[in-house]
Specification:
Layout (H helix, E strand, L loop, with lengths): L1 H23 L3 E9 L2 E8 L2 H33 L1
Antiparallel strand pairs: 1-2
Helix pairs in contact: 1-2
Length: about 80
């Protein structure tokens, strides 16, 4: 039962972390500058796709580890009550 709980929590943590990282990690950044009065320059920089994917995966893996640790603590508490 413990292995199944750890596997499920790691999978759910990875998927939830991936969704959150996709929602809140910007792929491109827009910066507006005003070099002189009345003139506005817009500069758009996009991240490299490989770096962006690695950033998403890193956040997803961290969230999966956190979910596994939380599930282990909850299982241990449940076992100690029995």
């Amino acid at each position: 039962m413990l292995e199944r709980t750890v596997l499920k929590s790691s999978l759910y943590g990875f998927v939830i972390g991936l969704c959150v990282m996709i929602l809140f990690t910007p792929y491109k950044q827009v910066e507006r500058k005003a070099p002189s009065p009345g003139v506005t320059v817009t500069e758009t920089t996009t991240s490299n796709l490989g770096e962006y994917i690695l950033l998403l995966l890193r956040g997803s893996i961290v969230s999966a580890i956190i979910f596994v640790l939380i599930s282990l603590v909850l299982v241990q508490r449940k076992k100690s009550k029995e």
